[in-house]
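User: What would this chain look like folded?
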Amino acid sequence: MFCRQCAGIFGGSATRRSARPGRSVTVTTTAGGARATGAGSEPAPAEDTAALARLLDGRRSCRAYLAEPLERATIEAVLDLARRTPSWCNTQPWQVMVTEGEGTDRFRGALLDHLAGQSMAPDFPFPERYEGEFDKRRKECAWQLYDAVGIEYGDRRASAAQTVKNFEFFGAPHVAIVTTEAALGTYGAVDCGLYVQSFLLAAESLGLGAIPQAALAAYSPFIRSHFGLPESRHVVCGISFGRPDVDAAANAFRTRRREVDDTVSWFSS
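Assistant: Here's the prediction, encoded as structure tokens.
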């Protein structure tokens, strides 16, 4: 992202080298904003586009995992890819807590104990209600999951048990808690959202399963206490991850995405 504050700091123009050898782009800043020219605007090779499409199409929210923990080097490979995420003025507001081994077990147990009798207290307010098309898509997703795992309509006990699996991390051996600096406000959280997407695609590229979970952020004060975080760190979400259980019923369905024409408005004059 490029903002007016950055333009005021740097002024003039600068040449940035891309990761691909032989390609560069010149960014010229003026009072009206920034303009990019040069080889960086060349179309990406077809294999790059195909690889990205495979990752986006292949990724799903994984709700069942093998118990075997990942090697530290594998986790670090995911984190090394995710850290390259862009952010507003390169603030990079994310700070991530990653659990493994007994750390995952202790966090899971403490969180489940905390749930009893505790009210939700997310740092970022959850929607008070879902209406219209948003409610329709939310319910469609829920019923796809319930159908996959055999929960019948009206079975509140079974649906409640499925909800609790969120706080058991769906059996994942690892959890990443993504936090932002409170002073950066909404856009710090937006930048962390970009980080989460990078993390998910990195995990997919390594054959791993992952699921972003706002449910964990519902108990933000507890998470701060558990990990020894200051009040200035706001919890955005958690990401449970590990090797997917490909035979699990909970991983047997796919949600739909809207078409481009349903999500974009064009203005040509």
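The first strand starts at residue 13 and ends at 17. If you want, I can go into more detail on any region.
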